[in-house]
């Protein structure tokens, strides 16, 4: 005679199979992503923007990473960045011309079913071309950025961002900024 634990395991397995079979009414339901899968995929997409795009070693590798992660009809809402995916790629290359050792350090990634938010820190030294019109003199930059994207068809579609421009401008050596900006930028950053 089978043991009680064997019978219990068999009953649980049978119920699980029955529930699983009735949960999907047709084959298309089996391939629909669950909300948690979509959230995880969107978080991964936000990370890929930096890992495969922004932090890639060469312009060609960065362009390839952005082409994978960013929609061809990308909507850019940063007032100083050119529009579209090609504008983004060119904008990033201008950063690299000024800051050849540019690096993005991801601090947080938050995702929903249709958005991803990444909080990150840009680091590097201005040793190449002028940055934001400021001549290079080896200025060390370390300031924070928050990017927000909507997701469409598995790619980053609309983009908004917030840069810590006061801290950046002070690190670039810009004089005459309002005292509250100077005082705030002098405080240690809590990341």
UniProtKB/TrEMBL annotation:
Entry keywords, A to Z: Signal
InterPro entries per UniProt: Cyclase_SnoaL-like, NTF2-like_dom_sf
Organism superkingdom: Bacteria
Transmembrane segments: none
Biological process, per Gene Ontology: polyketide metabolic process
One protein family per Pfam: SnoaL
Endpoints of the signal sequence: 1-23
SUPFAM superfamilies with a match to the protein in the record: NTF2-like
Name of the protein this chain belongs to: Ester cyclase
Lineage: Bacteria, Pseudomonadati, Bacteroidota, Cytophagia, Cytophagales
């Amino acid at each position: 005679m089978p043991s009680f634990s064997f019978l219990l395991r068999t009953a649980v397995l049978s119920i699980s199979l029955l529930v699983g079979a009735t949960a999907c009414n047709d084959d298309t339901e089996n391939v629909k992503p669950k909300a948690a899968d979509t959230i995880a995929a969107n978080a991964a997409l936000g990370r890929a923007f930096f890992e495969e795009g922004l932090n890639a070693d060469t312009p060609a590798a960065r362009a390839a990473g952005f082409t994978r992660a960013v929609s061809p009809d990308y909507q850019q809402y940063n007032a100083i960045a050119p529009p579209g995916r090609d504008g983004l790629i060119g904008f990033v290359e201008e950063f690299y011309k000024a800051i050849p050792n540019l690096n993005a350090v991801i601090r947080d990634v938050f995702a929903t079913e249709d958005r991803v938010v990444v909080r990150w820190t840009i680091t590097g030294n201005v040793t190449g071309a002028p940055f934001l019109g400021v001549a290079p003199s080896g200025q060390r930059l370390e300031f924070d950025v928050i990017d927000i994207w909507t997701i469409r068809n598995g790619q980053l579609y609309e983009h908004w961002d917030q840069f810590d421009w006061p801290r950046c401008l002070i690190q670039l050596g810009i004089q005459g900024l309002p005292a509250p900006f100077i005082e705030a930028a002098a405080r240690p950053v809590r990341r």
